[in-house]
Specification:
The complex is a heterodimer of chains A (113) and B (115). Chain A is mainly beta. Chain A has strands spanning 4-7, 10-14, 19-25, 32-37, 43-49, 55-58, 61-65, 71-76, 85-92, 101-103, 107-112. Chain B is mostly beta strands and 115 residues long. Chain B has no helices and eleven strands. Classes of the chains: A mainly beta (113), B mainly beta (115).
């Protein structure tokens, strides 16, 4: 079965520092989403990547999907306390049917002011 | 638009009780789904639906039933609650046009505790 592995599991950074979160798939990805979840709340869509080599940015967050479509990275530049939360990558399942979505276990980010 | 709404926000059940978690969306989305989120496990798909009258099982369907009589509503029923079903439950919806890579919109979640 297909799995998404995120690293690191948790991250504590000083405000203003850059950071990167990775999401690795055991199989080629059909597409890849990044979501942010504030503690105790629902998921907020950040961006979606579909093509190998694709890169998207929104404010200080940049996500990229590698050429082989098996790994994605989320990069935050000059982190702020508002970036704190849980970052989740998700994807449509490839082997079990494309509408059976899978998610990584999440990366907990804490930004120290 | 209200987006995806879920009720209740919190619920405590005793083992063996049954209940229904409600989910509704007002975006005319064909696809709706239920997930559970447990510490260290990420989101796991319980059931999903690609339209009224069509449902299918996800990764962890045991102990849960769903039905989709309208495009707007997708209730999740717990038949006989067990402590292992203590979790946070999220409902999500998305368009189907263009394939499965459309953005999923998530509800605020229901925090369920089974004693």
């Amino acid at each position: 079965s297909q799995e998404l592995e995120q690293s690191p599991q948790s991250l504590i950074v000083q405000e203003g520092k850059n950071l990167t979160i990775n999401c690795t798939s055991s199989k080629t990805l059909y597409g890849l989403y990044w979501y942010k979840q504030k503690y105790g709340e629902g998921l907020i869509f950040l961006m979606m990547l579909q093509k190998g080599g694709e890169e998207k940015s929104h404010e200080k967050i940049t996500a990229k999907l590698d050429e082989k479509k098996q790994q994605s990275s989320l990069h935050i530049t000059a982190s702020q306390p508002s970036h704190a939360g849980i970052y989740l990558c998700g994807a449509p399942g490839v082997t079990s049917g494309t509408y059976k979505y899978i998610f990584g276990t999440g990366t907990r980010l804490k930004v120290l002011a | 638009n209200a987006g995806v709404t879920q009720t209740p926000k919190f619920q405590v059940l005793k083992t063996g009780q049954s209940m229904t978690l409600q989910c509704a969306q007002d975006m005319n989305h064909e696809y709706m789904s239920w997930y559970r989120q447990d510490p260290g496990m990420g989101l796991r798909l319980i059931h999903y639906s690609v339209g009224a009258g069509i449902t299918d099982q996800g990764e962890v369907p045991n102990g849960y039933n769903v039905s989709r009589s309208t495009t707007e509503d997708f209730p999740l029923r717990l038949l006989s609650a067990a402590p292992s079903q203590t979790s946070v439950y999220f409902c999500a919806s998305s368009l189907l046009a263009g394939g499965p890579v459309n953005e999923q919109f998530f509800g605020p979640g229901t925090r369920l505790t089974v004693l």
